[in-house]
Amino acid sequence: MDREELSAWLETLGEPAFRGDQIFKGLHRHRFFAWNHFTNLPHSLRKQLESTVELRWPEITETIDSEDGSTKHAFRLSDGKQVEGVYMPYRNRTTLCLSSQMGCAMGCTFCATGQMGIVRNLSAGEIVGQVVAMLNAHGHSGVTPVNLVFMGMGEPLHNLENVMKAFRMLTDKEGLGLSPRRITVSTSGLVSGIERLATYAQRPRLALSLNATTDEYRSRIMPVNRVWNLAALADVLTRFPLEKKERVTLEYVLLSGVTDSLEDGRRLARFARAFPSKINLIPFNPHEGSGFEPPSEERISQLCQILSKAGLTVSVRRSRGQDVAGACGQLVRGKHNPGDPGQGSR
Ligand code: SAH
Ligand code: SF4
């Protein structure tokens, strides 16, 4: 429940609405995980809540530290299903990579999550829960800024309602109060979802996984391109109502011999110059049976040169957590045995 829903629910119990604010604050800002932590609530209400409402954040069932300082977590949800998230501490910020769905329906051929299909959407509470559980597990004080990226399992625009509810809860000043500018949803290119996202007054930043520069190749690796092709994407992005200084991130996975030619670089530059953008090149993270290879270092730097010469901002994502299969597109849980972390990409 968001803060308003909590207040309305407290009123149905005959309590004043501000109790909802108190509970929201306790859960999100103080990150309490038991009713007896809520010492500001009347004793009788606390007792009533204790006996009727189970307080539970997603449980971390597995934690794997990577050599680069990031940590992959597996979360068990209330129905026993598991999803994954990654905690990445940097000097001046901490970035959390979140899942929005268990699995994904989009079927991108280079992505381990895509190969498992969709199991279900995550609720807003399960999305917020990943954040709270990771901050708690790492003793994060909330002092250094927190960035959130919806780049774990799932297509966030396929679960937009719950993602937006989680966004409202996470940015609520009575709770964690995260900055909307530090939250990014990454989409494979659902034009209808991008259009819906554009209608929100307060919304997260947008990243598009472009990943190819011709319809022929994009349709081959991303089935969604058969519904919304490159022209449809260019059209929706040029219409997308950006704030001052806001830019759309274009993610571009480099698959050796497939999407990493110098021609690709020039076409990518042309695509990106049509609207305010920045480019994030992601060398492919190999996983078993994918049939794709990462690009050479030489090719990465050639492409960077082409793009920066075209006046574009470009960065290369050295995927964190690769040695623990926590990097982009490596997040996968066994579909038939959600408790078995051994299945999948490792
Ligand atoms: N479904 C959303 C967000 C999750 S995927 C989307 O596709 O945008 C996050 C990013 O990881 C996407 O840019 C995707 O293209 C990239 N990705 C997926 N599999 C990858 C892999 N094996 N190696 C590198 N990047 C990958
Ligand atoms: Fe889904 Fe994104 Fe993976 Fe494509 S890349 S299958 S949209 S998670």
Description:
The protein is of the alpha/beta class and 346 residues long. It folds into 2 domains: 1-55, DNA polymerase, domain 1 (Orthogonal Bundle); 57-324, Aldolase class I (TIM Barrel, Alpha-Beta Barrel). It is 32% helix and 18% strand. It contains 11 helices and 12 strands. The strands form 2 sheets. It has a 10-stranded mixed β-sheet with strand order 1-2-3-4-7-8-9-10-11-12, with helices on one face. A two-stranded antiparallel ribbon has the order 5-6. Strand 2 and strand 3 (82-89) form a beta hairpin. The longest helix has 14 residues, at 124-137. The chain is elongated, with a radius of gyration of 21 Å. The two termini are 36 Å apart. Mean pLDDT is 92; it is low at 335-346.
Unreliable residue stretches: 335-346
β-strand number:
12
How does the overall form come out from the CA principal axes? elongated
Q: Which strands sit side by side, in order, in the main sheet?
A: 1-2-3-4-7-8-9-10-11-12
Top CATH class of the largest domain: Alpha Beta
CATH fold-level assignment of the largest domain:
TIM Barrel
- Known CATH architecture of the largest domain: Alpha-Beta Barrel
Radius of gyration: 21 Å
- Measured distance between first and last alpha carbons: 36 Å
Q: What is the CATH homologous superfamily assignment of the largest domain?
A: Aldolase class I
Find the structural class using helix and strand composition.
alpha/beta
Number of domains: 2
What do the pLDDT scores average to? 92
Number of separate helices: 11
Bound molecules: S-adenosyl-L-homocysteine, iron/sulfur cluster
Please provide the ordered H/E string of secondary-structure elements.
HHHEEEEEHEHEHEHEHHEHEHE
Mind describing the biggest β-sheet?
Answer: 10 strands, mixed
Estimate what percentage of residues fall within beta strands. 15-25%
Q: Helical proportion? A: 25-40%
